Amino acid sequence: MREPAFRKSVRGQQTSQQASLPAPTGGWNARDSIADMSELDALLMENFFPDTTDVRVRKGSANHVTGIGAQVESLMPYNKSDGTQTLFAAAGTAFYNVTTAGSVGAAVVSGTSDARWNHINFTNSGGTSYLCCFSGTDSPQYWDGSTWDEITDSGSPSITGVTTTTLINACVFKRRMFMVATSSLKIWYLPIDSVGGAAKAWDLSGICSEGGFAMACMTWTRDSGSGIDDRIAVITSEGQVVVAEGTDPSSSSTWNVVGVWKVGEPIGRRCMIKYGGEVLIICVDGVLPLSAIVAGGREAEQMALTDKISQAMTTAAMAYSGNYGWQLQFYPIGNQLFLNVPVAEGGNQEQYVMNTITGSWGRFKKLAANCWTVLNQEMYFGGNGKVVKFGATDVFADDSTNIDAELAQAYSDFGTKGRLKKWKAMRPNMLINYTIDILIGMNVDYSDVPLQGPLSITPQVAGLWDGAKWDTGLWGGDVALSNNWQTVTAIGTAGSPRLKVTSQADVRLESSDHLFEFGGVIA
User: Fold this and answer.
1) Interior CA angle at 110 toward 162 and 346, to 5°?
2) pTM for this one?
3) CATH number reported for the structural domain that contains residue 25 in this entry
């Protein structure tokens, strides 16, 4: 029987080797072989976010409005042309104004069938700004800055020519509202600069060869402006994407269908968003840019933003695509793109979060979000009876609860492929601004063993300032280096450093140092 042997140290002779790994800023990799992954990637990245220079525990959250009494399933910001911004939440069978923090006030709209609404902002020719909300069950609800109106085929404004209770989604294209109806391949559009009037149908029945019904529509601005390259895109339940250009679908001289492309089936009614001049679509293939679809059809899967986490995306789509709550939300000030994944409706959601600068991904947990929005550069989500603000600069807890974060870096052979090693100690080099609890370990030879045991306390650290000493004070939230060696015991040829943190602190992993010995083989 052959067993590993390790050289005994000779007095005065150092046998331990030291090596360092940079923080895995490449992010979560759920695509590649674990034996052929970059050391800058991570097998596991939960509640860590891969920033451009380090890896950080995600920001925290704090209750914004409470006491709503039902699951908040839609958040709808109103952006008036004079700069006034108001936030409304749909929960249960009512709408609430949730702009101001605190306890919720009385409902502003009541008697709705449910809380699953889609919305757009639109300003008409008279300069009135509207928040237009659609559910596909109830008549649309419009807010003009002072009054809520139920939109039927009578009143002012009103919509005729279509049963308004079937309208479920909308977008703005070439100064018109285009509206998606349930169980139909007809897209309804209104007169220019109008939120009401006689609706006309753009019928896709003769264009979409696979049948089904329209799911969503969105404007696609290829040149990031409002010029001649503006087009409209519609995706159907069967994954056919129709792209058209022009100004008036009623005339062949002013309307042209550019083409029809096939992708995987879309997931949810909130499957399309604007992202700069791009349109992103959530489908079973992943999160696909419309430009990639037009360029390559189903081959666009390889150009999906979710390509690096494709296995996780596929698993989630297969298991949870029928659940309500799938949504993309761009968070510009955080350089983040959120993909909300409803593991279970009403309380168990995850977020796959992409760094919009690097394209790297992390996975957030314990943010029970049914829906997301951004208002005045700040991020909000709807939860159980409350609206929650996420990501404030100085918030590092979830409503005073610790954030648990765990990371497993990709396997490394530490520069000696196939050579046996015995790991003895590990030192994570972190910048922190408060006490944290930490547990570290080393998985070997492509195993996946969770960390077990109590977390140790890492003392808060501080810099010298006005006489303060290390380990005694902090400079008003500034971070400082914490890099304590901790013992690990593992034997193998390749190692995957693993780290678990629980804290209410600003925690940034910069790199890790490792002590190990080389081993041999004896009979």
Assistant:
1) 95
2) 0.93
3) 2.60.120
